[in-house]
Amino acid sequence: MGDSVGEFEQLILFAVVRLEASATAVTIRQEIETRTSRTISSGALYTALDRLEARGFVQSRLGEPTAARGGKRKRLYAIEPAGARALTRSYDALRKMANGMTARLQALLP
Fold it and tell me: Is CATH 1.10.10.10 what the domain over 7-104 is classified as, yes or no?
């Protein structure tokens, strides 16, 4: 695995960056589902978040208790520098490979 991230991990990291201080598992899942029209299981998301945290790519902390959650605290996620580096490398590689491919891909569609 090392410093690379897979597609699902990329989506999670992009969502964490986009959501900033409001990144919780629920908002991350909603962000991914809204932007990709892809259904995400909670189990897969929590497993991936745990894996990203173990690798030092994200950090989680407990937020303040809220009345709306019956006094429960939300787990908030933030990207770490190692996660930002891994996402940047992955995004740059994908962008370089995809550069100029739109017309070619469209030509392959029926």
Answer: yes
- Residue 66: predicted pLDDT: 76
Region 41-62: what's the mean pLDDT? Answer: 97
Max Cα distance, the chain (Å): 55
Q: Are 83 and 108 in contact (CB under 8 A)?
A: no
DSSP H helices in 2-80: 7-19, 25-36, 42-54
What is the pTM assigned to this prediction?
0.88
For the beta carbon of residue 51, count every other beta carbon within 10 angstroms: 16
Give domain limits for the chain: 7-104
* Residue 86 buriedness (CB in 10 A; 0-12 / 13-18 / 19+): buried
